[in-house]
Amino acid sequence: MAYTDQRTLRRVLRREIVGTIGVLTDEHDFRAMRRYDSFVFDDHATYLKHVEAVLRARALQGSHTTVALFDPEEYADWCAQHGLDPDSHLSRTRFTAERAATGPAVPYDGRPLSDLMTTLVDEAVRRATWEYATMLLARLGPCASCGEDLGHAAFTRASRLVSRILDCAPPGDRHLVCSVSGPPESLVAVLHADGTDDGVRIDETEALEFTTVLAVGLATANPGGLVMRTSTPGAPDRIHGWRIRDHGLVPLTAGEVFDAYCTDTETGEIIPPESNVDYCASPDLTDADPGPDHRH
Asked: What is the spatial distance between Cα 296 and Cα 59, in angstroms, rounded to a whole number?
């Protein structure tokens, strides 16, 4: 009887243990792992099928599982750095646990694995974009005239502009997109701001990433733009836009917003406008954004 009680208690404790699995989301990464004898899968589709089966089984048992992105190149470098054998499931387990704590990871919530992998890849792209934008701001250094940190100044100004845009937006759910052209890499960030009875609800991580990308556009000579789409039940969507120029945001006219949305950026051909959408003139944010005392 005592043995049975101990076994029951241990089974209860297992439910308290969370798990992590690293997933190879594409064929290229899967082929890279096949060079290890301890990696026993031969087919990517079969591998994903088994991953999903394990996730479902753990969920049925009441276990929580985090799904992390497994990068074979990062894994090989990590093993070399720590003096570990990459051809070992123990090494893969340690790497996955560490990356889940510091890198892109999402909880398994019962969705199809294909949907979960899309979310995971999007999260990885978002994180990489923010890290790259942060690096660009850090490289700007101090202003030669006043010594002010240019990256910090640009981020502060971008924060003020984002707050002002949300404050002057019509009621509803807002979807903002900021894009800054390269070289060497173009940056794109998205911010969702849901209207509530108490104001606006935003994701703090999204807001940080969005503001950082906008700051890069303000601090550099690279062209860029910001658009905002506001949706309200029972009313047409409203679209506003600004061009990033001269370290600030220049409002677009209704015609310019229409042209931006209804022109193919690659071919220059006209795209039919969406139904139930108003292309609107955008507020001038100059008064709310006086800018620096001098041109940095």
From this structure: 55
Rounded distance between C-alpha atoms, residue 29 and residue 23, angstroms: 10
Give pLDDT < 70 ranges for the chain.
Answer: 1-7, 9-18, 197, 265-266, 287-296
Q: What are phi and psi of 201, to 5 degrees?
A: -110, 125
Cα dihedral value 59, 61, 66, 69, nearest 10: -70
Strands 173-180 and 224-231: antiparallel
Tell me the C-alpha distance between 248 and 238, whole Å. 22
Residue type, 19: G
CB distance 154 to 137 below 8 Å: yes
Both structure tokens of 179: 């894009």
Say if pTM beats, i.e. exceeds, 0.90.
no
Q: How many helices (H) and strands (E) does the chain have?
A: 9, 10
pLDDT tens digits, one per residue of 170-197: 888 999 999 998 777 789 999 999 877 6
Of 45, 51, 49, 46, nearest to 70 by C-alpha is 51
pLDDT digits (tens, 9 = 90+) for 97-114: 998 888 888 999 999 999
Which of 113, 114, 120 is CA-nearest to residue 56? Answer: 113
Q: Is 224 helix (H, G, I), strand (E, B) or coil?
A: strand
